[in-house]
Amino acid sequence: MGYRVAVVGATGAVGNEILNLLAESDLPVDEVVALASARSVGKEVSYGEDARLRVQDLARFDFTGIDLVLSSPGAAVSAVHTPRAAAAGAVVIDNTSHFRMEPDVPLVVPEVNREALAGFRSRNIVANPNCSTIQMVVALKPLHDIARIKRVVVATYQSASGAGQKGMDELFDQTKAIYMNDEREPAVFPKRLAFNLIPQIDRFLADGSTREEWKMVVETKKILDPEIEVVATCVRVPVFVGHSEAINVEFAEPIELEEAREALQAAEGVLLVDDPARGLYVTPVECVGEHATFVSRLRTDPTVPYGLSMWVVADNLRKGAALNAVQIAQAMIEDGLL
User: Which residues of 245-278 are buried (b: 16+ CB within 10 A; e: fewer)?
Assistant: First the structure.
């Protein structure tokens, strides 16, 4: 007997990826329901290569009898409907920022802190971390296991798809307009993204950091280790899909470069592609559609006693969102939690 699954935000970029991944997966699913706002009701979305699902109204949907909800509608919508689904008995894997830092909601990357899933029972909710945090902690976990991480300095290069389909559309329209000598005013991003970089993702906080940077700090501490110090600079770049990160790691104890390589090569979810002399390093274009978190340009940092630097790339719509949610569901089934 399979599960009844609802996908909330089914018409969005992440919702589409969730539906694709569900169709590709071996999860025992008997029924999938596509949910979105009232303006999308009646539209059809793809479920695998052949099936189509008709979108139903999230606000009117009765979650009774639904076993699992994979939710990615935006934080404000999630704040209303995730507790409603959980109260009806469904287990909700929520991809928004709303529940991530609540102490009784597990914040989970299965390759990193799968054991935290056991804490879902108090709320029936599991939170999916921020896309930039997910790929970073996947790369950091195998290193932290062999030499305790003391401090992380990260600069991110985040694609337009991090702002959803509207972000990708704005980048496309701006790029096309520039070639037509037709400057377009930004609507999704704070400044023009085409042929540009924007050192702002989300709003600025009182200390001068952005909320995106704050997320990377607090989520890393909750997922990996509260003692790790993190400083982040998050930048939006004119790439459609795929987030990249330049990560500098300072350890509290010695770590050999070859030891780090072996740990990353053996780590679940990590693919080490690192031979720069032969052109072997990964760029965002090469990670699209892939499940792995790619690590390249691993090298010693000579400016601290024990340090490494690396380049980390992942498909933010897959591992940074939809795939991680589906992997959480798979882990819960395997561990007898669902």
Answer: bebbbbbeeebeeeebeebbeebebbbbbbeeee
pLDDT (tens digit, 9 = 90+) per residue, 73-132?
A: 989 999 999 999 999 999 999 999 999 999 999 999 999 999 999 999 999 999 999 999
The Cβ of residue 53 has, within 10 Å, a number of other Cβ atoms equal to 19
Catalytic residues: 131, 243
Sheet strands (E) in the chain? 3-8, 29-36, 44-47, 51-54, 56-57, 68-71, 91-94, 125-127, 149-158, 229-236, 243-251, 270-272, 293-300, 307-314
In angstroms, the first-to-last Cα distance of the chain is 13
Contact 317, 246 (CB under 8 A): no
Query: Using H for helix, E for strand and C for coil, what is the string for 175-225?
Result: HHHHHCCCCCCCCCCCCCCCCCCECCCCCECCCCCEHHHHHHHHHHHHHCC
pTM of the model: 0.96
Closest listed residue to residue 100, CA positions, set 214, 250, 259, 245: 214
Pairing of the two strands 44-47 and 29-36: unpaired
User: Tens digits of per-residue pLDDT, 227-278?
Assistant: 999 999 999 999 999 999 999 999 999 999 999 999 999 999 999 999 999 9
Report the b/e string of 68-106 with b at 16+ CB within 10 A: bbbbbbbeebbeebbbbbbebebbbbbbbbbbbeeeebb
In this prediction, residues 34-51 reach a mean pLDDT of 92
